[in-house]
Amino acid sequence: MDAVFVLYDQMTALDLVGPYEVLASHPSVTPHFAAVAAGPVRCDGGLVLHAGAALRDVPAPDLIVVPGSSRWLAVLEDSAELIAWLAAAHPAARWTASVCTGSTLLARAGLLAGRPATTHWAARGTLAAGGAIVRAERVVTDGNVITSAGVSAGIDLGLALAARLWGERAAMAIQLGLEYDPAPPFDCGTPEKAPPAVTAAVRAALTGR
Amino acid sequence: MDAVFVLYDQMTALDLVGPYEVLASHPSVTPHFAAVAAGPVRCDGGLVLHAGAALRDVPAPDLIVVPGSSRWLAVLEDSAELIAWLAAAHPAARWTASVCTGSTLLARAGLLAGRPATTHWAARGTLAAGGAIVRAERVVTDGNVITSAGVSAGIDLGLALAARLWGERAAMAIQLGLEYDPAPPFDCGTPEKAPPAVTAAVRAALTGR
Description:
Oligomer: homodimer
Radius of gyration of chain A: 16 Å
Structural class of chain A: alpha/beta
CATH superfamily of chain A: Class I glutamine amidotransferase (GATase) domain
Distance between the termini of chain A: 42 Å
Number of strands of chain A: 11
């Protein structure tokens, strides 16, 4: 199956690399890394990824994966061509997936109107404004659209999708290959679990509010 | 602080992008993405990253992060220049970190002789042959060398290092920013937890044995 991993300037690298590492490891997947224009793409932390294709050259993938960005409001304003590609490519795709604020791009493309979806916790308002029914869950599946919470949640999304596509045994093998037996040092990975002052500081850094 | 994220052909992208996303998000960090030669680097799953610098141009970083590869034996044979750089740069570094089989490169550079370290579960034999005392742990810290288990463990390593460098509060903020509240779909992320047939299949795929 042809999988398009969508790249764009100011994207968050881990949003994409989590599900890529899970999904592209399966022998049935041919990965394509595509942006509005082929060439280098600078992530929000400085890492540069290379888009091997332009989106217009991969119009009908089986699987679409859209990452988010820590600057999602600016990205929404700058992504008309990417959003038009999503709206055109989704109807023929077997699965469309987003990680983190990638779901706000799906919403802008009209894919989430009245549908349950998730996003980074700090972007729930943006996603709701885009017409989705926001769920504060790590992975949300609705029909053939699967969305995840922020950044690291893309690994969980990838494994959930792998289990749907290839069965639990195959997904378990991928999880073991990635040695995904997480041991976070703190129990603070959601705003409900983190100390309120930490949540407030991160929210202010991300949203200015 | 100057952080060098080491790139090389056939590296595993998530090994690097996990700790990068954690560490480069701190305002004190200036990230450098460096390979033996500046330019494109093709990861083992097909994603292309861009090395903005040659290793010789960043000889004395404060922090070194070395990813692994699913083809670690071939990488060990092809990486003489990278290994020489590690041996030269480590003595002046504040911290040297490896993810997954990156520790086998550290060992080849002479950094782990008689020291405790970890690696991807399928590469423990290679790491032991390199002179390290292999620990089947997710993150191992010994002096100023910190090593992690396979692929996804680099996120846990990054957060452990962030806590050492900047305190627990700062590390918690980063963890919340990455929404790192993992929910793996299966409890099979180590060979001890996975069904034996799954472990055997993944080991054979990775090692041919």
